[in-house]
Design brief:
Length: 313
């Protein structure tokens, strides 16, 4: 199954930029090779737009489709797609399940109300949900390494049907019931491998058996590698993405860990040029839920500003 998903995703190259370097005045601007919507987000966005164009009646997404305010606004204004917070908010029409997925009971509840459900869960998240179900079937206590409040983790936990524990940090390991000696581990798609390694090592010390599925998404790995490279080769880094976006926040952490001064922005109007006064090389990173047009707008704003700046400024 994993192979099939990989084959599907390999066809997508929309997040690979052809031109990554620009020059404006004395400043070099370098955009990360992989930036913009990842495959899963593009797929969910396309499904939502296609549904809105072809379906009668109201179309909603279950929660904001992605953590990007501009995209949410575009869906509302251009396609009439709003989002709901829970099954109680809707009695008819169509609900698109976003990339993070939802617990299966929620889909059942919506269908029982007569609501049409379009499942745009990212196939990679779906694989993780399936691993959780498999581990449960094989009598493991399911451990999900991730943020317990994140929608993806909530959806995966539901597949453990009460036999799961979410571990966000080493301190959380004590939350696993002491009689659980066979642990089956899956990981939130956007986590940093080093953090996962530390938690898995600690789990090994307390369990008889630990089975681990590394479900960190390849997009996360690619972007974190890009973030390291961009941070090491630029003095300042702009990280473009929604303030609620998990992978955007993590890119900023990776950039700062590797020595760059990171500025988290949601749009070109958030760029604080006073902090870039001495910049010579500015890197640009973007989360998997940041549209390409927004990255270009931020780059254009930098080019405009530094091209207009007096030489030597
Ligand atoms: S980052 Fe990975 S898991 Fe998340 S939506 Fe994109 S492809 Fe899917």
């Amino acid at each position: 199954m994993y192979g099939t998903v990989e084959a599907m995703s390999q066809k997508y190259t929309g997040d690979l930029r052809e031109i990554t370097q620009y020059r404006a005045g004395n400043v070099e601007i370098n955009i990360a090779k992989h930036s913009g919507y990842c495959w899963g987000v593009q797929r969910a966005y396309d499904q939502t737009v296609a549904t809105a164009k072809t379906t009668e009646g109201p179309v909603y997404t279950y929660g904001p489709l992605i953590h990007n305010p501009q995209t949410i606004e575009e869906l509302r204004n251009h396609y009439g797609v709003n989002y709901i917070q829970g099954p109680e908010d809707v009695d008819q029409g169509t609900v698109v399940v976003r990339t993070h997925g939802v617990p299966p009971e929620i889909q059942d509840l919506l269908r029982a109300k007569g609501v049409n459900v379009i499942d745009a869960t990212c196939p990679y998240v779906r694989v993780t949900q399936n691993y959780a179900a498999l581990l449960l079937k094989q009598k493991y206590h399911v451990v999900i390494i991730g943020d317990p409040k994140h929608a993806e983790v909530i959806s995966i936990l539901a597949y453990a049907k009460g036999e799961g524990t979410v571990i966000h940090s080493l301190e959380d390991i004590d939350k696993i019931p002491h009689n659980k000696r066979r642990l089956g581990v899956v990981v939130q798609s956007t986590l940093i491998l080093e953090k996962v390694n530390k938690i898995v090592n600690a789990l090994l010390a307390r369990a008889q058996e630990v089975r681990v599925f590394n479900t960190i998404c390849y997009v996360t790995t690619e972007r974190q590698e890009d973030a390291e490279h961009i941070a090491q080769t630029n003095d300042h880094v702009l990280v473009i993405g929604g303030k609620e976006s998990s992978n955007t926040k993590k890119l900023a952490i990776v950039a700062e860990t590797h020595g760059a001064r990171a500025m988290l922005i949601e749009s070109e109007s958030d760029i604080d040029f006073s902090k870039l006064a001495n910049a010579k090389k500015i890197g640009i990173l973007a989360g998997a839920s940041t549209p390409n047009w927004l990255i270009d707008k931020c780059k254009d704003r930098l080019v405009e500003h530094f091209s207009a700046a007096p030489v030597g400024a």
